[in-house]
Target: FAM20 C-terminal domain-containing protein
Amino acid sequence: MNKRGIIILCIIATLLCIGLGANFYFMYYLNAEEGQLASVRALENMIRHKIRHLKPAYLNRNPRFFMFRNKLLKNYKQAAYENASVLWEIANWWPHENEIYPLYDSSMGQLLKTLREEPITRASNLARGTQLKLLLRLSQQQKVIFKPQWYPRDIVIEGVVYSGKDRHVAEVYAFYLGAVLDLRWTPIVVGRVVNLKDEIYAHGDQELQNTIKIEVDDEGKETYCLYGKCHYCNEEESICGDEQHNIEGVIIYIVPGTLAKRRSPWQRTYKEDKRAVWEDDMTYCKALKNKMETIRLLDLIDVAIFDYLIQNGDRHHYETREERVVLIDNGKSFGNPHKDHLDILAPLYQCCLIRKSTWDRLQVFSGGVLTEIVDRLSKQDALYPLITDKHKRGVERRLLVVFAVVEYCMDKEGDKMFKTL
Ligand SMILES: Nc1ncnc2c1ncn2[C@@H]1O[C@H](COP(=O)(O)OP(=O)(O)OP(=O)(O)O)[C@@H](O)[C@H]1O
Ligand SMILES: [Mn+2]
Model:
């Protein structure tokens, strides 16, 4: 080989080495990312496989359901009452840790009726949180929170899981779902049609009145529109009364006691170009298990199941009462009936733990009866039907996913995944 030949060979060898080096470097990064992506994908495939092979018991009605049905229907049936004050006093004594109301109590049906019927005697803006809400006083006594309607029932909210404004009916649905699943950690909520002119404006303080615009058309007909005071409130986005000045909304009973707010370990970044660590790291729970009390972790897993069923993907913070998690703020549920954001279930499939009582209870409501019983319970609500059939099918579809994920975890962990704390 001549000198020129040797030089060419050397150049080729050098280029080859640089090329290979860069390639290895590139491959390394590709693998790190692909590995994570692959593990999320593998999990999804596993769950899909499990759904296709679910045991008939998960798909059929559970005969144990009938035992619960009649008791639930009786307990939550709105009932006549004589003295609202007495009922509110009772209800304000109910909460114990995160249980907001008792399993069965003859005052519940009456309490629900007070929230629907007692006169509004005062109204003001409640600038807590980011969404529009009011603080109302009923019969000069009991304070309650009011969240108004923004959307019709059949709206499909496109985009990310936390898109859009509150869905008022979601708060009522969450109350009944909590009651059925024995996660009695939500506030007591009823739907109510209120008169923006006679009930809200007329009893509103100056500040609230300043956030209600009154428009008069050529024929002298008034329209009342509320925009309120909150982080996202502005004059351009308001809620207007109908011909009679009525608006729909929900009355949320204030949970007595002190609440503490904590950052969720499964918090989203709320930036579409940035993913949170937990979204890609399927071993995320390992470290958490050492850092967090098991009882708290189990609470958060119950919350994840609850939120997944109703597709509440906005629990950036959770609140605790006497160190136990409460289910406050369920307004961002039921955005898109066609979408199931599996990652809301991350606490369950990453930790592979579940409270035994929750697991037993979920199985009672298999075979389509979960949405059926919530529907029956909410028939008495002023805003019935709370959700569309598409949303109901969504809830049932997601219940099967929860069953499949628990099956997946049982394969991995066996019976030790069930806890009794
Ligand atoms: N039923 C209730 N009982 C007691 N406190 C409540 C109740 N509902 C809401 N709060 C308090 O008011 C705060 C704001 O309420 P909520 O979270 O429903 O508002 P939001 O506008 O949806 O907030 P965010 O924008 O943070 O989601 C809660 O963090 C809680 O501390
Ligand atoms: Mn909210």
About this structure: The pocket of adenosine-5'-triphosphate (ligand 1) is lined by residues 128-131, 145, 187, 252, 254-255, 259, 261, 319, 328-329, 331 (CB under 6 Å). The chain has two domains: 49-64+257-419, 79-253.
